[in-house]
Amino acid sequence: MAEIVQTFDSKEYTFADINLMLGGQMMVNITSVEYKETAKKNAIYGKSVYPVAIQRGQRSYSGTLKMLQSEYETLVRLSPKHDILSLHVDAVIVYGNPERGDVLITDILHGIEFTEDGKSISNQNDNMEVSLPFIFLSKVNQAV
Prior knowledge:
The protein is mostly beta strands. The chain has one helix and eight strands. It has one helix spanning 69-78; strands at 18-22, 25-27, 30-45, 51-68, 89-95, 105-114, 129-135, 138-140. The longest helix has 10 residues, at 69-78. It is globular, with a radius of gyration of 19 Å.
């Protein structure tokens, strides 16, 4: 088993410290980004009510990107045939502010494709925020 070496760093990043580039385009009007990796795991049982092992299986990647309508419309314009569901891009997400001396943390999401495309606004909203769920092929944590 690998030994975990702990290092102490009290730096926590705010949303203002995040920069996101999607398909080479800097996204300046994003309001939220979420992405995750899921591993299929099952308990394996022998002649007992207690598991004897954990079977590891396929991994999957998904997320959601929320942005202001102006950013969404720019993304649609850059999409093939103005169809955001046909877009296939990579994302680079950088946490930290180098002007403050922050250590930059960079995650890369490869092969993003959006799975839904829709807009919604009501009389309670001051502006439109568009939410785009996506799947992707792989993730590189703390890329250097």
